[in-house]
Amino acid sequence: MDQSGLFDLNSQPDQGETLQLGDAALVDFPTAFDRETSQALFDRLYQDIPWRQESLWIGGKRREVPCLQCWMGDAASLYGYSGMRLQPVAWHSTVLEIRRRAEELSQCSFNSVLLNLYRDGLDSVAWHADDEAELGDDPVIASVSLGADRPFQLKSRHSQPPEKHQIWLKNGSILVMGKGIQNRWLHQLPKVKSLKEARINLTFRQVQKLNAQA
To answer: CA 20 to 30 Å from 139, out of 26, 59, 130, 132?
Structure first.
């Protein structure tokens, strides 16, 4: 499997729900994992992953990332964003099981994953795109959600006023962000102040070999 195409829904074992955004698309598989499996995966990752509180420079000040993180993948899959350089930890067996499902549904292969633990609704991520050079010109990213349901928002990068969309990322879902999404759209996970439950998100990526030489 490679990332030469977006993905062919007709060839997939599970029918996804497609949000067409111009010539780009998101495909949501809301029941990629059943409830029992989702809970078991969440519990294992919550306990086993070496979660870290990273920090980055914003406006000349060092600020903590508002969630816990772990960068995991093949040894050469070095990655960086917002001034951070992340060294991958070795693959966890449970994450490899999740990766197989993400690759099955996306029809793409992945050599790395960013795991985020949102401890409650106050943990969030601001508007951004996963468009770093090491991800290639037009990456496909598979986003797995375990735990609390959270709203996921998108806005166009090149239209004024920006076109906006919101979808809910359900427990046990896989959202495939196809080609064109990172180049043309920004996304965020906003705060939900009333939410007390935790969520784990895994975003599977394919880091290009050029980064291993950086």
So the answer is: 59
pLDDT tens for each residue of the chain, 214 residues long: 444 333 333 333 477 999 999 889 999 999 999 999 999 999 999 999 999 998 776 677 777 889 999 999 999 888 777 667 788 999 999 999 999 999 999 999 999 999 999 999 999 999 988 877 788 788 999 999 999 999 999 999 988 899 999 999 999 999 999 998 998 999 999 999 999 999 999 999 999 875 344 3
Report the CATH number at residue 38.
2.60.120.590
Residues 171, 177, 181, 185, Cα dihedral to 10°: 10
Q: With a threshold of 0.85, does the pTM exceed it?
A: yes
How many domains does the chain contain in total? 1
Range of the domain at 37: 17-213
Reduced to 3 DSSP states, what percent helix, strand and coil does the chain have, rounded to the nearest 5?
20, 40, 40
